[in-house]
Amino acid sequence: MKTILVIEDTPAMRENISEILQLAPYQVVQAANGREGIEQARQIHPDLILCDIKMPELDGFGVLHILRKDPTLAGIPFIFLTAKVEAADFRAGMNLGADDYLTKPFDDLTLLNAVELRLKKDAAVPPHPAEVSIPLGHLTKALLEGNDIRQFLCDYYPTTHYNRKHRLFTAGSRPTVVYFIQQGKGKLFQADAAGNEYITGLVGPGDFVGYRALLEEEPYTETAELLEEAQVCSIPKADLKTLLDHQSAVANQFFRMLAGDVAELQERLLKLAYQSVRKRVAEALLMVERKFYPQSEGRTTGDTVRSESLRFGHPDANTSSVMTLSRENWSHLVGASTETVIRILGDLRKEGLIEINASQITLLDIDKLTHLKR
Length: 374
Description:
DNA-binding, Jelly Rolls, 16 strands, Arc Repressor Mutant, subunit A
């Protein structure tokens, strides 16, 4: 019989959860706070832990942090119980290694399904090292060890050269692969019924694209389109699913990436709702710079940084190092009409914050632009 540790400071909630689990049947051990939960975990080594976030003495984040530092307890599946999931809390929990969240109030079936799913995944036997294919081994390293190794993924997976404006996938289609951008840049966008587009994200070298729909096993909610010529490799769904099912570290890495994407998108949507267009234009300029020109980090006030091309025609062969971004794309990134965005860019030029020279925008005062977007 599987043993489940329930850490919850509200007596009625703790008893209710325990009764449901005991009927399943599971063996249940209760703890009234975080400190008691740590002690119980060390004594009984449960098969699964359900833990509230907001508790006196030691909260759920503290409990998870301590458990993940203990080699004998680090592998125990961990599910947070919370009355409200803020993006920051979700991201913090996933960064610490949480396996799942249950938002209160939840019904009996939701609780039992989450517990059963987590126990099944934990019981899955990892593939023997000798049985892991070379591509899977490199994919595992790429996911866990960073961008330096990721660049070698395209040596082991099918790689295609795509032209500008090629769509890797469209909203409504179902995922069969996860894309990895080796070279080039692209955008993710959504469109409403009237055809109005809003850029939800920018992607570039080292980025995985389309994994959210695969993780959720749902159709794409966005369209991915390239902004310039690109080298893209395709990782089969089966390979990724194998790692997600058998490598908890890989699964946690993707959950962290997903949590970061969700938090960033929520922050942008909040700004879209409440910030002025002027502030959103400044944010868009800085967003492009951060994403596509990271070498400009560490600059000092007054440094001139080429951040992005504002090109109204076709790219010039003599300026291939400058990325093409149409007026429409600037509009879709800011979430305002093209005319309004161009007018505000003109205002920023008059104020000495940027320079527009034919096909490119130069950021002249990073500090003032950063202050402007706040």
